[in-house]
Design a protein that fits this description.
Elements (H helix, E strand, L loop, with lengths): L1 H16 L8 E9 L6 H12 L8 E7 L2 E4 L5 E3 L15 E5 L3 E8 L3
Parallel strand pairs: 1-2
Antiparallel strand pairs: 1-6, 3-4, 3-5
Helix pairs in contact: 1-2
Bound molecules: zinc ion.
C-alpha cells in the first residue's frame, strides 16, 4: 500500500529528529501534503497510526496541511490554481505549464509533550 510506505517514512523522519535520550511523547506531527501527491488524507492518517505502533511516535496525531496545486504558465506567465490534475493554462490554454507547488510532502512541525 502506497500510503503505508509513506507513513513509515514519516515515522522514521520524526524519530530521527527526536532529541536523544529524552523520553518525551510526540503529541503531533504536522505534514505539508501537496495535492499533486494524490493521497487520501484519512487513509494516510490511518496508516500513520499503524506505522507508529511500537515506536516513540506512537499515539501522535498526524496533522495534514493540504497544499493546493499551483501552476505557472511558461507562455503567458500567468499563475493559477489547478484542479487535482495539471491540465492546461486557464488563461491562454497552453499546455506548457510548470508546477509551482502541490508536490510537497514535508514534516514541518513535531510537537512534543512536556518533559
Ligand atoms: Zn498561459
Amino acid at each position: 500500500m502506497h500510503e503505508l510506505s509513506i507513513a513509515r517514512n514519516i515515522v522514521e523522519t520524526v524519530r530521527q529528529h527526536l532529541p536523544a535520550g529524552e523520553a518525551r511523547d510526540v503529541k503531533s506531527v504536522t505534514l505539508k501534503l501537496g495535492e499533486f501527491n494524490r493521497i487520501v488524507p484519512e487513509s494516510l492518517e490511518f496508516c500513520f497510526e499503524m506505522a507508529s505502533q511500537g515506536t516513540a511516535v506512537q499515539g501522535a496525531k498526524l496533522m495534514i496541511k493540504n497544499v493546493p496545486i499551483r501552476c505557472y504558465c511558461k507562455k503567458c506567465g500567468s499563475g493559477f490554481e489547478a484542479g487535482r490534475y495539471i491540465t492546461i493554462c486557464t488563461n491562454c490554454g497552453d499546455a506548457g505549464v510548470e508546477l509551482i507547488s502541490g508536490n510537497e510532502m514535508d514534516v514541518v512541525e513535531v510537537e512534543l509533550s512536556e518533559a
